[in-house]
From TrEMBL:
Pfam families: Amidohydro_1. Its EC number is 3.5.2.7. 4-imidazolone-5-propanoate binds at R82, Y140, H167, Q236, T312. This is Imidazolonepropionase. PANTHER family: IMIDAZOLONEPROPIONASE (PTHR42752), IMIDAZOLONEPROPIONASE-RELATED (PTHR42752:SF1). HAMAP family: HutI. Pathway: Amino-acid degradation; L-histidine degradation into L-glutamate; N-formimidoyl-L-glutamate from L-histidine: step 3/3. Binds 1 zinc or iron ion per subunit. Its main location: cytoplasm. Catalyzes the hydrolytic cleavage of the carbon-nitrogen bond in imidazolone-5-propanoate to yield N-formimidoyl-L-glutamate. It is the third step in the universal histidine degradation pathway. It comes from Isoptericola halotolerans. It is found in: Cytoplasm. Its cofactor is Zn(2+); Fe(3+). Fe(3+) binds at H73, H75, H233, D307. The gene is hutI.
Amino acid sequence: MTTDDRSLVITGIGELVTNDPAHGGPLGVLHDAAVVVADRHVAWVGPASQAPSADDRLDADGRCVLPGFVDSHSHAVFAGDRSAEFTARMAGTPYTGGGIATTVAATRAASDGELRRRARCLVEEMLGQGTTTVEIKSGYGQDVATEVRTLRIARELTEETTFLGAHTVPAEYAHDRRAYLDLVTGPMLAACAPHARWVDVFCEPAAPTAFDADEAREVLQAGRRAGLLVRVHGNQLGHGPGVRLAVEHGAASVDHCTYLSDDDVAALAASGTVATLLPAVEFSTRSPYPDARRLLDAGVTVALATDCNPGTCGSSSMPLVVALAVRELRMTPEQALWSATAGGAAALRRADVGSLRVGARADLVVLDAPTFVHLAYRPGVPLVHTVLREGRPTGGLRRPAGQPSRPR
Ligand SMILES: N=CN[C@@H](CCC(=O)O)C(=O)O
Ligand SMILES: [Zn+2]
């Protein structure tokens, strides 16, 4: 199939989601469509009957094709396992963020090789489920050496890397938070900034080891001075200052947004900050879901992401997130798919991913389904047939040759 110097035409697309409003509606859906890929980018989109020829051809055989998912929030570099914490939570123990210390200890003790192997596995797992762009945070090192190690490994896997030294205050600084803030905003930031695009902070006064408004402001200001762009973990466990702080700092995104005041919603609606919702976290922590409809009705841009991490979301699956967004957040299938693709791109300030318009990166998913609605209609079913990243086929979860597709 396509290499850098060979073009590819994908024909037989029963339903094509472009996310290009020029084709109508936010999803820009075309039927009986074709896409031409050249030089790793989308070169042509239109009716199959008018498709230009290309060096190679892929017949989608009536399947649905959509932009690759953009998972704008993950913590994919870590060691250890917290399934026991999950079991306790299912028996009624609430999530407080305290378990992060368990992952910090395991991550510090792990070799680069182990961290790299585990992170690669997770990113491969994501790719097989249609995620072609992923953001990865540090935050399980919480010392200079381990934060740098985790960011270097993240950088091998994605350009969207985030410095989250201010995830929680580690145990050795529990009685001197000031000293940890000085470390995070001083030597740790200086060592990490070359490996990161973003700075993030867990601003959550309800969590004893996370950061309050003044502390979080200090972290974001230092990150900006170091040339990093801002994103924030906020309003996950209770009402608080996270959203206001994110808007005040021109953050690309504030993530979680479970507990919002009317002022928070109004501030988001008047800002360029995306609200990123992470419903697989509420699913995995048995917590109340965020009110997506309230945000959408107010005109806030909403993204959906996994938050894949060992504590609050063991899932790497954007199809699961889309299904939860429809079932539990009451988003329409159209809204959920947009938020999981174009919304994620907005949350990462990326114009080149999240859509299949001419000039976009040729990141696309062929679903073994006639319509994207099946992502929510058939939850838990491996519907991803083929994934192309930058025009190249990936291993994905392709059905072995000769095995019949399920009826569409
Ligand atoms: N809220 C903070 N951080 C992660 C959870 C990290 C953990 O519990 O290990 C989150 O986004 O949910
Ligand atoms: Zn997170």
